[in-house]
Amino acid sequence: MNGAPFSFLRLGLVAQNTLREAVRQRLLHLFVGLALALVLGARGLQDFNFGAPELKFIADCGFGAMTLFGSTLTIAATAQLFFSEIENRTALTLLAKPVWRAEFLLGKLVGVALLTALFCALLTGLLAAVLWVREGELMALDPEGFRGGRAVSYAMVALGGWLQWLRLVVLAAFTLLVASFARTQVFAVVCGFGVLVICHLQHLAQEAYTRAGSAVGAALGGLFGGMFPNFQMLSLADSLAAADLPAPGTWLRLTAYGLGWALAAGLLAILSFRRREI
Amino acid sequence: MAPALEARGLVKDFPVGLRGVRLRAVDHLDLTVRAGVIYGLLGPNGSGKSTTIKALLGLVLPSAGECRIFGRPSGEVAARRDVGYLPEAPYFYRHLTGRELVGFYGRLCGLGRRELAGRVETVVAQVGMTAAADRAVETYSKGMLQRIGLAQALVHDPRLLILDEPTAGVDPVGSAAMADLIRGLRDAGKTVLLTSHLLGQMEALCDRVAILAGGRLVAEGTVADLAGGTGRQQLEVDRLDEAQVTELRAWLAARGRGLHGVAAAGRGLDAVFLERVGRGKGEGTEA
After folding, report:
1. Touching check for A99 and chain B: CB below 8 Å?
2. Is a pLDDT exceeding 60 seen at residue B281?
3. Domain ranges in chain A?
């Protein structure tokens, strides 16, 4: 018997401390500022809407900002918060206490997950506010066009923010997995972006391999499909209408898919970190 | 009663480069630290002191051998409940205040909120940091970091303290205060494992010492055993003039003894510094 069972309290303490450290980082302020500017400035970019309806364009801009800056923030923050513990030797003091390495690592992951939750909640809230105001203006200008009431489903906007957060949590878990064995922060960051690209594009590769009928290609596609999540699964349908809102069962299934992948990557990170020399 | 610390046949190799070459940092080390003593671990840079400490704390896995803390394998998380550790040149979370930092580590060690507040106050006062406890750690000097580091090591009232260079970067006043504190801990029944390059301080503080070189134990014993044993004595007398010294030499020679050296006895720079600056007036020190 080890006599010191796994403690969610200690995990929570590490997570809380990670979040406190993260929100003080200038990099975070920069990315949040850029993302907020993009969401708020979406109306000013309407000339580049490529024919999409205005409200849809604003929503795409908002979710695009979340993807771009959220992913960059997640990868940079995860690698930075992990390596600062190793390089500054704060991990040495912490792990000399009765703390499991799993508590430390999962605490880091939960801390980053809370950070990305704040980021997504802030941007989703702002996006919803921008859409609400603009929709109100359009309704006043063209009452006939909105005879059936508001066109935007704000539940759909919330779901978009939720799915975005799930993607960022998965990305954080994969970055942490790489960091758990990487010797340098740069390596973890580069691999994090590699994972992001694979997760976003693997469905295209699989389709291309299937069309080409290549056995090797199909095997490769299957391999990547088994090793990395498909972020296309965690994307909204190309509509903000209430009629297209997925059933609650689908929300739950997608949540289980995202959190399942994050948990799997987190467990692999614990295995890898177990024997790392601090 | 189990020893506070025990290493048996401890070996630690580190891989170097891609060709599988291994660097042996600790080489078949046997060490026993019994409870209630101040034990010094000495050695030049690269002699394996820090690696030994990490292995004793379960922070690195031994390549061979085993380490125990109060009889428990040091790889067990529960074994670390009885240990307080101050690393060399400690660096802490800069955004926390000293009080928050000590509280954070206290909660990690399982102290409840009510018990924690009292313990934090006690240990912060013990290391003389009450006045600076609500300042952010990023504003602390090296000496203050060492002292708040000692407070976090003490917060859960462990039976064993492992202090890696606790006086590095600390001014002489702070260093003397730290030495007093370490003696006080031993008197309160704690075991202290200490490393330092300040051999004079180690000699004055430690009950036993071990000397490492190249990862091997080259000497171990009480300070008196290791540093004494020359068969000579030092006598401190009032100043003698040249004729009196000659007379004394002759008196000793008649008895088969030699006079091997005559030197003016100084108080030492440490004593002068402490007298002029005052023990309670070092950087951030509270009287």
Report:
1. yes
2. no
3. 8-273
